[in-house]
Write a structure and sequence with these properties.
This protein is α+β, with helices and mostly antiparallel strands. The chain has one domain. The protein has helices at about 5-10, 20-25, 40-50, 65-75, 125-135, 170-180; strands at about 50-55, 85-90, 100-110, 110-120, 145-150, 160-165, 180-184. The protein has a four-stranded antiparallel sheet, sandwiched between helices. Strands 2-3-4 form a three-stranded antiparallel sheet, covered by helices on one side. A hairpin with a 2-residue loop joins strand 3 and strand 4. Helix 1 (about 5-10) runs antiparallel to helix 2. The mean pLDDT is about 95.
């Protein structure tokens, strides 16, 4: 599997325009035709084509700021039809070192959204909470939904969570042509 093949399939199933396909392949010109060694690399390529968002498993700058950036990225992938504002963490009781149940709060088109987030450090996302928040960025009339991409994982290695915005038909095509599966 290569970036070139992934891009061709994404274009064929209507997930990227021809312009986006060419732009991404031009940016990846040095490696676009190199075989990807892991299925995870193919999953990460979806973000480069603008159809997915990655929730970093490694450290981030701060939970107090980076959720907002993550949601901005998701809104952009979703076409900007939903306004996500006032993203903030409301700290729970206790210290982060012991694990702390916080609230990730924001407004979606002016309506409050609250998601529980279990944080163990200031510089790591709660992966589940982040993915749940990303799901809020697709407009209600959009036939696409955010889907959690699954891929083969090696033991003792951290992986980003990859969220893909796709219609049911596009998700099926990704499974058929690229062997991607999705978790509910």
């Amino acid at each position: 599997m290569t970036y070139t093949r992934i891009g061709a399939i994404l274009h064929e199933i209507g997930m990227v325009s021809e312009e986006q396909l060419h732009r991404t392949l031009a940016e990846a010109a040095n490696y676009a035709d190199e075989p990807l060694e892991e299925h995870y690399e193919a999953a990460c390529a979806l973000e480069e084509f603008g159809v997915a968002v990655s929730v970093h498993a490694d450290d981030i700058d701060s939970i107090y700021y980076d959720y907002a950036t993550l949601l901005e990225d998701a809104v952009a992938v979703a076409g900007g039809k939903v306004a996500i504002t006032n993203v903030r963490i409301v700290a729970g009781e206790g210290d982060l070192e012991d694990g702390r149940l916080d609230q990730l709060e924001f407004e979606r088109d002016g309506k409050p959204v609250t998601i529980l987030a279990d944080h163990l450090a200031e510089d790591y996302y709660d992966q589940g909470a982040a993915c749940e928040a990303i799901a809020e960025t697709a407009h209600d009339d959009d036939p696409r939904t955010w889907r959690y991409l699954d891929f083969e994982r090696q033991p003792h290695r951290g992986y980003d969570s990859i969220m893909v915005l796709a219609t049911p038909e596009q998700a099926q095509a990704l499974q058929t042509h690229l062997s991607f599966t999705f978790l509910n």
